[in-house]
C-alpha cells in the first residue's frame, strides 16, 4: 500500500479527541495528508480546531480555518457523535435534540460547509461515521438508532446530489469497537457479552475503522459513492 497516497491532500476530521476520530486523523497524517482535526498532537503538518459540530458558526470557522491554513480541502471524515440508551418512556426531548443535533445536524452541517470548498478544487471525498445501528433495530437505543439511520439516508441523498460534480459521499458503519464511547454505552459486563456474539470472536479496534475510512477517501474507491461500508466482524450478517 502507498504510504503517501494522500500526499498533497488536505483532510478534515471531526470528533478527533479520542477513539475512531483520533486514530483516523493520525492515519491520514501518516499517509501524507495535511490534517485539521480536534486533536492537539498529530505530528507532521496538522492543526487543532475546537469545534461544536451542532453550531453552524463553529463548523464554518473550522472549514474557513482549513482553507486559510492549507488553501484547500480534499477529504473529510465527519465522525463526531454521541451515544444514547434507555427505555422509550424515559426518552426526553432534551436528549433527543442533543443526539440529533450532533449525530444528524452535525453531519449535515459539516457537509454543507465542506462541499462548496471541495467544489472549488474540482471535487473531493467525504465519509460520514454511521454505525451498524444505522442498519438494524435494537431495544432501548431508539434515539441513537434513529440518528444513525438518518446519517445513512443523508449519505445516500447527498452522494446523488453531487455525483456529477466529482464529490463522493460514503458512510462507514462500525460495529463493536474498543473505544471509550463503547465502554460508556455498554459497561464491562454487557460489553463482554456483546463482544462474545461477534462472529470473529472479538471487538474491533480503531485502526480497522480508520483503514476503511482511508480506503473510501482514496482514489482506490473513486467509483464508490452513496454506499455504507459495514465493519463489524460479521455481526449483522447473522
Describe this entry's structure for a reader:
With 238 residues, this protein is α/β, with parallel strands linked by helices. The chain is built from 6 helices and 7 strands, in the order E-H-E-E-H-E-H-E-H-E-H-H-E. The chain has helices at 19-30, 56-70, 93-120, 142-162, 180-196, 206-217; strands spanning 10-13, 34-37, 46-48, 75-78, 124-129, 167-174, 228-231. A 7-stranded parallel sheet has the order 3-2-1-4-5-6-7, with helices on both faces. Helix 1 (19-30) links the parallel strand 1 (10-13) and strand 2 (34-37). Helix 1 crosses helix 6, helix 2 (56-70) runs parallel beside helix 3 (93-120) and helix 3 runs parallel beside helix 4 (142-162). The radius of gyration is 17 Å and the shape is globular. The mean pLDDT is 90.
Please describe the structure with a list of short key phrases separated by commas or semicolons.
alpha/beta, 238 residues, globular, 14% strand, single chain, 7-stranded parallel beta sheet
Give the strand tally: 7
- Helix share bin: 40-55%
Q: Structural class per helix/strand content?
A: alpha/beta
The end-to-end distance, rounded to whole angstroms, is 31 Å
Tertiary shape: globular
Major β-sheet profile = 7 strands, parallel
Amino acid at each position: 500500500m502507498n504510504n503517501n497516497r494522500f500526499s498533497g491532500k488536505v483532510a478534515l476530521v471531526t470528533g478527533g479527541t479520542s477513539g475512531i476520530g483520533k486514530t483516523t486523523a493520525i492515519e491520514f497524517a501518516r499517509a501524507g495528508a495535511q490534517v485539521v482535526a480536534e486533536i492537539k498532537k498529530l505530528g507532521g503538518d496538522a492543526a487543532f480546531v475546537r469545534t461544536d459540530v451542532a453550531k453552524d458558526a463553529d463548523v464554518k470557522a473550522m472549514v474557513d480555518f482549513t482553507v486559510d491554513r492549507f488553501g484547500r480541502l480534499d477529504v473529510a471524515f465527519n465522525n463526531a457523535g454521541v451515544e444514547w440508551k434507555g427505555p422509550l418512556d424515559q426518552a426526553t426531548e432534551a436528549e433527543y435534540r442533543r443526539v440529533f443535533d450532533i449525530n444528524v445536524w452535525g453531519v449535515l452541517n459539516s457537509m454543507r460547509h465542506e462541499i462548496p470548498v471541495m467544489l472549488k478544487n474540482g471535487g473531493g471525498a467525504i465519509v460520514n461515521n454511521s454505525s451498524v445501528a444505522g442498519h438494524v433495530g435494537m431495544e432501548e437505543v431508539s434515539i441513537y438508532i434513529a440518528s444513525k439511520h438518518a446519517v445513512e439516508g443523508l449519505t445516500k441523498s447527498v452522494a446523488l446530489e453531487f455525483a456529477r460534480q466529482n464529490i463522493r459521499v460514503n458512510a462507514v458503519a462500525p460495529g463493536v469497537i474498543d473505544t471509550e464511547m463503547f465502554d460508556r454505552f455498554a459497561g464491562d459486563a454487557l460489553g463482554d457479552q456483546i463482544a462474545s456474539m461477534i462472529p470473529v470472536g472479538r471487538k474491533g479496534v480503531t485502526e480497522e475503522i480508520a483503514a476503511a475510512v482511508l480506503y473510501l477517501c482514496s482514489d482506490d474507491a473513486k467509483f464508490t459513492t452513496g454506499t455504507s461500508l459495514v465493519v463489524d466482524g460479521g455481526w449483522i450478517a447473522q
